[in-house]
Amino acid sequence: MSQVAERTAQPAQTGDGGSFDGLRLRSLTKQFAAFTAVDSLDLDVPSGSFFALLGPSGCGKTTTLRMVAGLETPTSGSMHLGDRDITWDKPYRRPVNTVFQNYALFPHLDIFENVAFGLRRRRGKDVEKQVGDMLELVELDSQARKKPAQLSGGQQQRVALARALINRPEVLLLDEPLGALDLKLRRSMQIEIKRIQTEVGLTFVHVTHDQEEAMTMADTIAVMNAGVIEQMGAPGDLYENPRTTFVANFLGQSNLIEGTLKGRDGDQVVVDMQGTLATVPASRAHVDVVDNNPVWLGIRPEKVLLGESGDAIDAPGNSIPGGVVTDVSFVGVSTQYLVRMPWGQELQVFEQNTGRRRLFRQGEPVEVSWRPEYAFLLDHSQDASAGVEDDAS
Amino acid sequence: MTATATPPQTRSAEPPAEPPRQRRRLTAYWLLLPGALWLVVFFVIPFYSLVATSLYDPDGSVLHGYDMTWAFSNFWHALHDYWGPLLRSLWYGAVATAICLVLGYVLAYAIAFKAGRWKNLMLVLVIAPFFTSFLVRTLSWKLLLRDDGFIVNSLQFLHLIGPEGRLLATPVAVIAGLVYNFLPFMVLPLFASVDKIDHRLIEASGDLYASPVVGFFKVTWPLSLPGVVSGTLLTFIPAVGDYINAQLLGSPKQRMIGNVIQDLFTNANNYPAAGALSVILMALILVMVLLYVRRAGTEELL
Amino acid sequence: MRWLQRNAVLLGGLLVIVYMFVPIFVVVLMSFNKPRSKLIYRFDGFTLQNWLHPCQSPSMCSAVGRSIEIGLLATIVATVLGTLMAFALVRHQFRGRTVSNVLIFLPMASPEIVMGSSLLALFVAGGFGGRLGFWTILIAHIMFCLSFVVVTVRARLAGLDTNLEQAAMDLYATEAQTFWRVTFPLVFPGILGAALLSFSLSFDDFIITNLNAGNTTTFPMYVWGVAQRGVPMQVNVVGTVMFVISVAIVVGAELNRRRQERALA
């Protein structure tokens, strides 16, 4: 995960004029009375990709998905599939299928007829064979004549997937498809769905609030918040180089430290961080570099190193003395510390339990440091607690 | 009236569905129109006719027609002549409703919490007898309660009634008939309410030092109030207006307001008085229902 | 003793059920009765005559036929109109919802005697006083069945996940296909239940019917008439048959449900 900023290739950068054979949304807006659920959204999903829309509940991701499916009418804007304008098409006229959140399997039809539903509506040929093949793909060929209520949650999930996939849609929409499953099943289904996507090669658009799920499955993630896309890119890029406080906090965790810009030094930006000078590569400074402007300096907890007070740091970097360990949580693979800095802020520090370094105790004085290339600078006008999850979900 | 299992509602964090479009709104009116029209023409407008009838000239007759004379005195006369059956109806209705509530609650509670896998069977057993004609069942009660029948003889043997005592043609028989006939109207709403109560709440009250009796009155009863309210209303209203039980199981001394209205319409042909009595009955019931619903604090009747 | 204490409520409930079945037992018993006198209504001896000759009193059988006829017609009309109303109320937003709900609720909350006399007042005022009969009964029955249909179908429809219809549209079903292949089959049990309820309400109604029947006689009116003179035992045959048919329907539905549930395990 250290290929920092190598893949700057953003799929969204294809120009408006060029031919594009994926899903393209332009200025897509949806208002419910006084509430704007989706606000002038631009998005390009290349065909064949596994694309995730990630965000907290109420961020507009499901509304976006429902507009693409045709289940919600946009207030304004357009949607194209390749050259075809699908903005105003009825749901049954667009080559798009959905895996619903609670599956929405027809309770009065058996598994076979559920899967055959779309083919029959389009008067497809070889329904028997196609359905048989599809049920084999999701490993449910022995359950064809059962009713949905007779299957387990994971099996129902696979039926929902098969029912949508069999139509070979240009875009397959997945609305929190694993939300109703328990953790263990969810993990195996993530891998399963990823395998099927590679096998069939269709475009998948996956809506989720679970950042781990998005990072595991998708090759491109768009982080959505309050109806707009905050940042889009490969999972690694988003994690290592977030551009907003929301992304920094929603995708993993971040320490955000208040600082003041103090000019440039080559391709490094210098920041006065509570009295200590720190440097950040210019490519990771997502701010206007103007002297004396306030900024947030961000650093991921696992990138922070702890050292004995006064010890030499084992790598060149930004180093701040005067910390005190206030809390130690041993969680097996790592140890999580809270370190109170001289200016009162508590920083999170995760250290791998490699066994090569000793554990620090509560109350011990420590020095914190990190390599400059792991830090990032964010606009100070953004809320430092945006995207912090209240509860682990 | 059948208890249908509701599939889990999908929970969506996103805002609710889009506002309706014009075309869909018109569809709603077209769907509603035939049924609503039927109810307006044959339920609402008849009320108007009834009120009008109650104000007709009492000296007219069906043969010669009635004149509208705004005869408000009809009401006064009706009340004066028939206050006895009117009060008796309300009294019988109230007593029958109270007994139904006790019996119905025991039954609903037993079905909801004690029946286990026999729950549905018991529910079926509650409804089944009521598919047999109301009148035929009431005739059966007449047979059961007859003067030298098993029940009367047993009661006489136990000295609960005198050797010449009887059940037929007494208020007891009429009220028993009302209780019997309207019991399912009490049981079904009660069951719907009690069945929704999470049984763990009752266990929790026990855990928090409530005796079973206290637990019942502090937890079960308040939570079942919606069922109690709709059950008592669904029992009380038809019971007050009923005259079949009074006629078949009672005597002229147990005449209820329904007997009077029926008689005035079909035998005496005194439409204005009958209309006035109907209006009075409806008004009384409406007032009582409104007061009752307000006191019980349940607005979810619809 | 402790067993008794623990199961007191269940025993109470069972006693109430026994109480509810006592008259049914009498009805079945009396359907095999061989009465000695027309005037004394009690069990005198066993016979199959009542079952072998149910139409000994032809006026009873024609009354039963008329009740079935009215019941079927009222059920069809009320079920269609009520189902349409239920769809409007559950699936559409429109002005006048509350008024519609009150309009549907009131007939269920009015005493029959008041509804019956109101209708009579309307018919008489409209000049139909001399033409009371089959059609006025039918109109009245449709009126009071309608509300029960709306309430029953509405409950079923409200429990239906709208995602299912969206899923059908997503899977290339047009609006009409979605309705006939998904919505209707799923709501159908509710509609069927409403129809059964309508039929039994209509078949059994006496108070409203009696006020608006003129010279037409339905089965309950026939029973009412003979109750004063002497009840032919065939009335109990009809009562028993009604009981058996309805129990068969309800038990059949319950067994079907259980069978499906067992397949789950």
TrEMBL record, chain A:
Stretches for region Disordered: 1-20
Ranges of Polar residues composition bias in the record: 1-13
Domain of life from the UniProt record: Bacteria
PANTHER family (alphabetical): SPERMIDINE/PUTRESCINE IMPORT ATP-BINDING PROTEIN POTA, SPERMIDINE_PUTRESCINE IMPORT ATP-BINDING PROTEIN POTA
UniProt KW ATP-binding keyword: yes
Molecular function terms from GO: ATP binding; ATP hydrolysis activity; transmembrane transporter activity
Record domain ABC transporter: where: 23-251
UniProt keywords, alphabetically: ATP-binding, Nucleotide-binding, Transport
Protein name: ABC transporter ATP-binding protein
GO CC field: ATP-binding cassette (ABC) transporter complex
Pfam families (alphabetical): ABC_tran, TOBE_2
From TrEMBL, chain B:
CDD domains: TM_PBP2
Signal peptide, first to last residue: none
Keyword Transport carried by entry: yes
Region (Disordered): 1-20
One cellular-component annotation, GO: plasma membrane
Alphabetized UniProt keyword annotations: Cell membrane, Membrane, Transmembrane, Transmembrane helix, Transport
Residue spans crossing the bilayer: 29-51, 90-113, 120-140, 168-192, 213-237, 273-293
Intracellular or extracellular location(s): Cell membrane
Highest taxon, organism lineage: Bacteria
Domain ABC transmembrane type-1: 86-292
Record protein name field: ABC transporter permease
TrEMBL record, chain C:
Gene Ontology terms: cellular component: plasma membrane
Main location: membrane
Subcellular location(s) per record: Cell membrane
InterPro entries per record: Bact_Polyamine_Transport, MetI-like, MetI-like_sf
Keywords: Cell membrane, Membrane, Transmembrane, Transmembrane helix, Transport
Residues spanning the membrane: 7-32, 70-90, 102-126, 132-157, 178-201, 233-253
Segments forming domain ABC transmembrane type-1: 64-253
Bilayer disposition of the protein: Multi-pass membrane protein
GO biological process, one term: transmembrane transport
UniProt record similarity statement: Belongs to the binding-protein-dependent transport system permease family. CysTW subfamily.
The protein's name: ABC transporter permease
Originating organism: Nocardioides mangrovicus
